[in-house]
Amino acid sequence: MKDTEERLRGLLMQACAGDNAAYRDFLLELSRHLRGFLRRRLGRMPDAVEDLVQETLLAVHNQRHTYDPGQPLTAWIHAIARYKLVDWLRVHVRQDRPTEPLDDHEDVLANDDSAACEARRDLGRLLERLPDRQRLPIIHVKLHGRSVVETARLTGMSVSAVKVGVHRGLKALAASVAVTARSSQ
Amino acid sequence: MRTDELIRMLATGAEPVTFRPPGRRLASGLVPAAIASTVLMAVALGVNPALGATATDPMFWVKLGLGGALLRAGWLACVRLSQPGARLGRGPAAVALAAVLAIWALAALATAAAGPEQRAGLWWGQTWSGCPWNIAALSAPALAATLWAMRGLGPTRLRRAGAAAGLLSGALGAMVYTLHCPELDAPFIAVWYLVGISIPTVAGAALGPRMLRW
To answer: Residue A101 — left, alpha, or beta (φ > 0 → left; ψ -120 to 50 → alpha)?
Structure first.
């Protein structure tokens, strides 16, 4: 467990210095822990697990600048995962109480579940609905792996507009996930 | 989109990130809000014409100090509640409680020292009916700015975070209001200033769950 904390923290530090391979490893390992954590708490709603894994990954990505390297990563991740879970439960489950306590801080990294499956809510479809100035930068940079400069040339946008588009687009994606979560109840 | 596809997408072309302490972002909203609030006070209420004389009275500084202590408490709470997983701790509540107890102790002393016929005047002052609303109005720019700033960070306990934003804004509003306010009696300050500060605090708690959701 201590090892997991150390390893994830190391990967995140490398990732935030610009190492995308480390970032992929970080998110991959994190997703397995999140899946285990959420599956235990959503035992009766297995369909929702993958939606929430994705929602939490997106939240971790968008808010990663709020991590304080002086603090344990476990506490930071647990707070985000718990927040997304409580938010989801409030929308979807009025009377039903989760059977597992939510506050058990350590075990966000205690479970490891790598059985990734398809989410019910398709982020790809939500991505399609973003405005061009956000959708195109995400498609070129994040899905096709093109550089920001190349994307700027292809779309006729400025380099900074491409960067802003990616950044805002991922935030908008997270927001539209929250909206669809509300409307689909 | 499968989760592994999402992960590949997030990791591809991810820009380097610098970890920024939440104080920077909070301050970037609060400074313009303080200026806006001061301008609002000067235009709508007017600076106290006797401010020069008032400022030599220790009670003026007590009034400003109360606002400053609650500003400190609200600031600490906002910083901590803006970061996922950071502990709120007892610090902010202890600072706020100490400030409130101090002003109430001064109010009790002032009341005890006054003659019976003067006591009501100490508590009601001349401007009690406007004071709380003016403080609340002057705190509005800071409340909007702080909620905006916190939303871009990562609050996970939204009601508390909203209340902290309200306390911070209310304290700022009260400090700006001291430049207009002619009252110098501790009992007046102990009641009406705190009522004024509690209006944005309650408003923040009510708005938090909706406005801070991310």
So the answer is: beta
Strand partners, A118: B2
How many whole angstroms separate alpha carbon A65 and alpha carbon B118? 56
Contact A57 B6 (CB under 8 A): yes
**How many Å apart are CA B155 and CA A65, to the nearest integer?**
13
Residues 6 or more apart whose CB falls under 8 angstroms from that of B2 comprise A116, A117, A118, A119
pLDDT at residue A157 greater than cutoff 70: yes
- φ and ψ of A118, to 5 deg: -70, 135
> Cα distance from A139 to chain B (closest Cα, Å)?
9
CB contact under 8 A, A66 and B6: no
CA distance A11 to A22: 5
Nearest-angstrom CA–CA distance, A164 and A179: 22
B96 three-class SS: helix
Structure tokens at B203: 């408003």
**Max avg pLDDT among A1-15, A100-114, B31-45, B52-66:** B31-45
User: What was the pLDDT predicted at B122?
Assistant: 87
Q: pLDDT for B101-136, tens place per residue? A: 999 999 999 988 888 888 888 889 888 888 999 999
In which band, very low, low, confident or very high, does the pLDDT at B175 lie, cut at 50, 70 and 90?
Answer: very high
Distance between CA atoms of A39 and A140, rounded to whole angstroms?
33
Q: What is the mean pLDDT of residues B184-210?
A: 94
Of B214 and B32, which is predicted with more confidence? Answer: B32
Of B2, B12, B86, the CB nearest to A142: B12
* CA–CA separation, B33 and B168 (whole Å): 12
Condensed to tens digits (0 to 9), the pLDDT of residues A21-41 reads 999 999 999 999 999 888 888
Q: In a mutagenesis test of the B interface, which of A83, A138, A147, A168 is the best target, namely the one with the most B β-carbons within 10 Å?
A: A83
